[in-house]
Design goal:
Its cofactor is Mn(2+). This protein is α/β, with parallel strands linked by helices and about 400 residues long. The chain is about 45% helix and about 15% strand.
């Protein structure tokens, strides 16, 4: 009888320790689950599809059935085997995978566009490294049958113009079914895909092929937008496309002097805004930009490359949106664009992802609280009451 009671007394401290350890494990697990999983749902759940504002030429039928829900992101820069540290790679790819999969589940877009620089080292990766990068991309950016994924080429995928080869272009095209000068038409909306790296204008083999496709596509679109005319023989045998003005999708932005006129919390930092852009490196050349505007007269241009947000107006009427990087390696506040698009109108809304600085703040606060709880449990932390009482007793003794 006495021996059983003494055993119970001895086991009490052990039970308390196990209970305290279990509480710590639950606390740490809860913080990890929130910061690495739930936070993406909490943040992206707040994003809403923008409404397409009607005009005089927009009827109820178009509003209800012809709105295409598009997600646009850019510059994922999946790290490669040369410059990518395994921990950095693991962290960034987990963040992008969770963000992308959460966005698909919550927003259910019809189509997703990635505006180039999918990989960071595609310009020099070996066949084995390329295959590994593609495998990881397909795992991170897997999508359901109800959603379409369109990937556009960037300079980090095939190299800048002086690094670009037919082999690298074909390798990218084979994986992503990408072709410069390709037209994608969904719900009567025309999207023109441009290989902006091939807009060098020096007559290289890839450049000639790309420009020839763009010119042919421009002719088709222009003929489709004209009213039927018997005297117009140039359009008599041309395949008719939807008459909707096209939306241009490319990696490089059209020519602009700098980001000095860009604004917003995700625009370039103040110290970088006034740095002049280099043609054919930071932006397209003035000549190539004028060609694209003249060929297509687009109603909207979407581009990436700069990793920062910007909105500019070309020819006084054509808006271009530079989409910021989707990777936390390039920004503290990545985002993507949500677009509600019809054959005649569009409305865009930005959806920010969790700020990495805020995630770190949560981890730091949780770590500090964890230390306090451990010290208090082992009575290594002097309670404020006893500390004040000790000070008073010392003062009286003096």
């Amino acid at each position: 009888m006495l021996s059983s009671s003494s055993t119970t007394v001895k086991s009490l401290p052990l039970k308390k320790r196990l209970c305290f350890l279990l509480k710590l494990v639950c606390f740490v697990s809860s913080v990890l689950i929130f910061c690495e999983f739930l936070i993406y749902y909490v943040v992206i759940f707040q994003c809403r599809w923008p409404e397409v504002k009607g005009g005089a030429h927009m009827d109820k039928k178009e509003t209800s059935t012809s709105v295409l829900k598009a997600v646009i992101l850019a510059d994922t820069h999946l790290l490669g085997e040369i410059k990518g540290h395994w921990l950095d790679k693991l962290r960034r790819e987990w963040q992008m995978e969770r963000s992308f999969q959460t966005a698909l589940w919550l927003l259910q877009p019809d189509i997703v566009f990635i505006l180039g620089d999918v990989f960071d080292e595609g310009k020099w990766s070996s066949p084995q490294a390329w295959a590994d990068d593609v495998r990881r991309f397909r795992k991170m950016f897997k999508y359901p049958v109800s959603t379409e994924l369109v990937v556009i080429v960037g300079n980090h995928d095939i190299g800048f113009h002086y690094e670009m080869t037919t082999y690298k272009v074909n390798r990218f095209e084979k994986v992503f079914n990408f072709t410069s000068g390709k037209l994608i038409t969904r719900k009567g909306i025309n999207f023109v895909i441009v290989n902006s790296v091939a807009m060098e204008g020096d007559g290289c083999a890839v450049c000639r092929t790309s420009e020839a496709k763009l010119v042919a596509l421009s002719h088709k679109l222009n003929c489709s937008q004209q009213k039927p005319n018997r005297s117009n023989k140039r359009c008599s045998d041309v395949e008719k496309l939807p008459a909707s003005e096209p939306i241009l999708l490319q990696h490089y932005p059209l020519y602009r002097k700098s980001d000095a006129e860009c604004s917003g919390e995700d625009s370039a930092p103040p110290e970088e805004k006034n740095i002049p852009f280099k043609e054919k490196y930071d932006v397209l050349s003035q000549e190539a930009s004028q060609k694209l505007i003249w060929w297509f007269q687009p109603r909207l241009i979407l581009s990436g490359h700069t990793h920062s947000a910007c909105e500019v107006l070309h020819a006084g009427k054509i808006p271009e949106i530079s989409v910021p990087s989707f990777s936390w390696r390039n920004r503290n506040n990545p985002s993507f664009i949500m677009g509600s698009i019809t054959p005649t109108r569009f409305s865009l809304q930005k959806c920010f992802l969790p700020y990495e600085s805020r995630v770190f703040t949560i981890y730091c606060a949780a770590g500090a609280l964890l230390v306090i709880l451990i010290l208090a449990h082992f009575q290594l932390l002097t309670p404020p009451f006893y500390f004040a009482q000790r000070l008073i007793s010392k003062h009286k003794a003096v």
